[in-house]
């Protein structure tokens, strides 16, 4: 069944069908139109506060006492790419898990959407597309501010944004795939507290991996955020190797694909009527 709204005129006189997932994306984008101003302010204000405080305060102390551990980098140059990666992870999880869990509850949006010609997979893809869009928007704003501060090379900034886009997909796809199955809101919050936050603290964002105990380093290297931090940092500094970049990109891409496959299954199972 094809609705009138799902067809667009083309010069040849024929009609072109819009992918149904774009209708779901348009719904979330319409909701975002009411809050985007506050989000943009936060996306600019937060990096300004971070970069100012770190560059003028903490960074000075670290540079003076422990610059050798950073390989000669300033702390600001070391930290900024890590913060970008960690922020992409947090945005992806928070904007995926909580809204998905709310949408699948009684009288939630997903049930209204599933009453339309859209399939559960269309709903999943459309919502996921919006989540990755938000991650990219936040990362672009953060990177622009960082480039203005000199914390990221302006010529390398686009590569950093692409890296955060991949990080966003790697976290958003499995997060949404799982959240649609979550029964209780405290479970969603528990994953944030005991899964996302420890990765934020111990995945090389704030200090080099070499500062951790030897037995803990392989554990950290197995986490997706460590690969995201390394990908962003090497992209920002131009220190990446072909092999290292391939490993980081491959790890995150596999996680995103696995999330997509799981999401197709979980959404079909929980939204099928």
UniProtKB/TrEMBL annotation:
Its main location: membrane. Keywords: Antibiotic resistance, Cell membrane, Membrane, Transmembrane, Transmembrane helix, Transport. InterPro entries: ABC2_TM, ABC2_TM_bact-type, ABC_2_transport, Nod_factor_ABC_transporter. The chain crosses the membrane at residues 40-62, 68-86, 128-151, 157-180, 187-209, 243-263. It is a multi-pass membrane protein. The keyword Membrane applies. It is found in: Cell membrane; Membrane. Residues 38-270 form the ABC transmembrane type-2 domain. Pfam families: ABC2_membrane (PF01061). Belongs to the ABC-2 integral membrane protein family. This is Transport permease protein. The lineage of its organism: Bacteria, Bacillati, Actinomycetota, Actinomycetes, Kitasatosporales.
């Amino acid at each position: 069944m094809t609705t009138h709204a799902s067809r667009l005129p083309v010069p040849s006189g024929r009609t072109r069908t819009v992918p149904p997932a774009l209708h779901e994306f348009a719904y979330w984008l319409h909701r975002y139109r009411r809050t985007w101003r506050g989000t943009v302010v936060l996306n600019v204000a937060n990096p300004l506060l971070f970069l100012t405080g770190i560059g003028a305060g903490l960074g000075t102390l670290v540079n003076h006492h422990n610059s050798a551990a950073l390989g000669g980098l300033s702390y600001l140059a070391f930290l900024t790419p890590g913060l970008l990666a960690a922020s992409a992870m947090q945005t992806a999880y928070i904007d995926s898990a909580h809204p998905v869990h709310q949408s699948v509850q009684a009288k939630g949006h997903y049930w209204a959407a599933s009453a339309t010609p859209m399939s559960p997979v269309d709903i999943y893809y459309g919502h996921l597309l919006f989540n990755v869009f938000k991650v990219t928007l936040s990362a672009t704003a953060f990177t622009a501010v960082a480039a203005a501060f000199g914390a990221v090379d302006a010529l390398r900034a686009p590569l950093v944004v692409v890296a955060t886009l991949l990080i966003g997909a790697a976290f958003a796809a499995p997060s949404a795939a799982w959240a649609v199955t979550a029964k209780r809101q405290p479970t969603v919050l528990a994953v944030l507290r005991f899964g996302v936050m420890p990765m934020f603290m111990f995945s090389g964002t704030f200090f080099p991996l070499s500062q951790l105990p030897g037995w803990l380093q392989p554990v950290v290297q197995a986490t997706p955020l460590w690969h995201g931090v390394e990908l962003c940092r090497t992209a920002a500094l131009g220190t990446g190797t072909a092999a290292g970049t391939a490993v980081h990109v491959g790890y995150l891409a596999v996680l995103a694909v696995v999330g997509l496959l799981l999401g197709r299954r979980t959404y079909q199972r929980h939204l099928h009527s």
